[in-house]
Design goal:
17% of the residues lie in helices and 34% in strands. By secondary structure, the chain is an alpha+beta fold.
């Protein structure tokens, strides 16, 4: 499933403190969610990746962020579903110098070997 959001500013202070390895029933509020996010606009050369890494670490998410050759930024976020959702919403505004045009969110199960959050090489 793909979701597309238009950019608008927002503020969120989501945190999670349970063990990441715990998978939950669909009705459980601590369900683990993993998504790939592609952010377009003026998002390279403005500190967007560093901002994503800091925000993800603060929220205790697992995954990575990288620049793409087409000028967008791509990230993978994995963690408690409500925190992942808050992070994808935060990506709509990004750091102060960014101008986000679009945020595309795709659910995925690609969470192999995720330890912490890091910046990876450009794709």
């Amino acid at each position: 499933m793909v979701s597309e959001f238009e950019a608008y500013p927002h503020e969120c202070n989501g945190h999670w403190s349970h063990a990441r390895a715990r998978l939950a029933d669909p009705g459980d509020k601590f369900m683990i969610r993993t998504v790939r996010v592609i952010v377009t606009g003026r998002v390279q050369g403005v500190g967007y990746r560093a901002w994503v890494e800091q925000e993800a670490e603060t929220r205790r998410l697992f995954g990575w962020v990288r620049n793409r050759r087409d000028g967008s930024v791509e990230a993978l976020f994995s963690g408690e579903a409500m925190v992942v959702d808050a992070m994808t919403k935060a990506c709509r505004s990004g750091p102060r110098m960014a101008v986000v045009e679009k945020v595309i969110v795709v659910n995925t199960s690609d969470d192999r070997d995720l330890r912490g959050f890091r910046t990876i090489a450009t794709d």
